[in-house]
Amino acid sequence: MIYYILGSCFGSFLCVIAERIPIKQPFTIARSQCIHCQRTLKFWEMIPIISSILLKFRCRTCHKKIPVTYFITEVLSGFIFTFSFNQPSTKECILTLSWLTVALLLSLTDIYYLIIEPKIFYPTHLGLISLFLIFKMPIYWESVILYFLICSIIILFLKEAMGMGDLLLLLFWAPWLTIIELTQLLFVASSLALVIYWGISLTTTKQIKTLQLPFVPFLSLGLFIVHFL
């Protein structure tokens, strides 16, 4: 329970980082505000999970909807902490917590702005690679070769299928995944994205030809399913 509470609090902080860094706003000193009326939030309005439910997902002052991503992130971050701290060894705990937390953070920036923010991506992944090397994680060179083959096909024939940010993310993940895991990750992520896309197309009357889905959340979910489960 303690791990879940800590994770939920950290998830709230991840939302702030993902929202503010891409638009060059401070995230360590500035107080949290309503994104609609800019009112500074009281401490009891920032209690992870509970505040969103009590406020019925609306601002207390302007009554506009609070993005559900805050609530979902707090729930997921709590789960990540609980899952990670229940790993059988300290090494696995650190690696699981670091990798999944970074994946969640990048998923948020992709959801908010449809980008992989370089100021977040490079420091976090350099840190991840450092951990992989410190703990002497095996490097799967066959996965790197497969990655470049897939990347070549996408660039030549499927330019709209994945953005360059998604490919860059996979470049950092591929060496630490077996060739089977990398293949399964791409299959799971693509399948989930297609299901969501078809679901949206069936439930809306609007034109969705220009619909852009953030793909990092699907890659992150695929990573969790094929590598950590």
From TrEMBL:
Keyword Membrane: yes
Main location: membrane
Location of this chain's protein in the cell: Cell membrane
Presence of the UniProt keyword Transmembrane helix in the record: yes
Topology relative to the membrane: Multi-pass membrane protein
GO annotation, biological process: signal peptide processing
Entry-linked InterPro entries: Prepilin_IV_endopep_pep, Prepilin_pept_A24_N, Prepilin_peptidase/N-MTase
UniProt name for this protein: Type III leader peptidase family
Organism lineage string: Bacteria, Bacillati, Bacillota, Bacilli, Lactobacillales
